[in-house]
Amino acid sequence: MLYTVWSSGVSDSSKIGIELQGKSSRLHPKKNYEFEFRTNDNSETNKSIFGMEPGDDYVLISMAYDGSYMRNALVFELWRQLGYWSPDYRYVQLFWNNTYQGLYLLCEKVKVSADRIDIKSISYQDNFLIKMGRYDHGDFDFALYGRIVDDLQPGARYKIVYPKTRKLDYRDRNKYIKKLSHISISLEKLFGCNGLKEDIPDPVDQSSAQINLNSFIDYFLLSEISKNPDAYLANLYLVNQGLFDSYKFSIGPQWDYDLAFANTNVPFFRSDSGWVYIYNAIYSAYFANSWWQDLSNASAYKDSCIKRLQQIEHVFSESNIGKITDSLMMEIMPFHQADYDLWKTGSRFLPDNIKAHKSMADEVHLLRSYMFRRKDWVHSNLAQLPKFNSPFNELMQKSNGEQLDTKGRKLSLHYPPYQHSGRYSRSGYYSYEILDSEGREISSGRFPQTKKIFDLSSYSKGIYFIHIQEQYGPGPMPTYSDVYFYENVFYWFEVE
Known about the structure:
alpha+beta; Immunoglobulin-like; five-stranded antiparallel beta sheet; 10 helices; 20 strands; 27% helix
């Protein structure tokens, strides 16, 4: 049973079903929850709560990782000002069996309904709402690696939010794969790219596109200005709204920005510079959606981003951000101290990748000052938006960001890098090639399965890559049980 009490003393009670929400947030003792209103026979029912539009599903966000208590609410407001539906929300104090649980952000769950994402009212069989996320095996409906799908292989993982389905067969799955593939084709036509690899002279008229271009650009700009570590990887909603014989595809509501705006100990995400669409494609353990990587290769896309940022610059202005955050502070201030005393003192529950919390006033100041610096950096560097399709990025992606240390202009390798069982005698060797940041070969050769020291005294300062491939000479090949993998890897290293 859920009991709601207004500050005026007006109260109400409702039957609900409730469960934990989120993934990484479950590591903190202050949990996220989602609940739905139910009738006496346990059917879902719509109901208004704290003045929000009637609905059946809501989420209680703990804000356990956010010392400012406002990152998600701020992004909800920004996305709404950009012209899209965004969840309504209220700050509430939560009690569980009369025990205080802290300050929570109560908000509408992202779903298809007349008052939220209204695609149900349009008579079109191909309407859908899909969410991309870091789902565990068995929790997602299909995965895409570029344009290749395989639910047993790594890839960007997607779950179908609407229409609800118990289980997809291969025909249903292929239907959604085909739809997402059409988006890539539409983007190619929109920006006049040949496979999104290089520009061609005459791009197609953008007005003929079947996608909401602004939603793609706005998501990119918001992700980069906030420097959201989850950008292009998780909590990415995709909406397909059919219109007669065509469709209108757009990026959906924004969700889960609690680590954005430098709220992390990861050096890249604390710095003012650098592009997230490149970093997450290279260094993340998860597969990023490749659309924005591909789009960066088109000059027309860069020009569209510059033009769009000029149109919406007032949304990210210091006066507007100040107005939103001041308003949120007024809502939070009366209640945050009790939550801070319960959960945030000493930041004792935070994982290593989350920075320790300061006072709320300090956290809000850090959020705002970072956002203004970051917006200025994006604005200044957008005209030089780097193409992802470059030798450096492709090599860095192959290396998965794994770096080898160099000391005294020497690079030492110990191969093989794992312990052997001793059940066989390996008679092979390793071939290698060293490449510069443009992909040009600097040197190549082979070395036995032992320690190898490379002399880098003649190398200029910069980033280099080494490609190592395991080879076998005469003698029996080792079986799969004898080795972990057939070595064929890339690493990068720096010469200073």
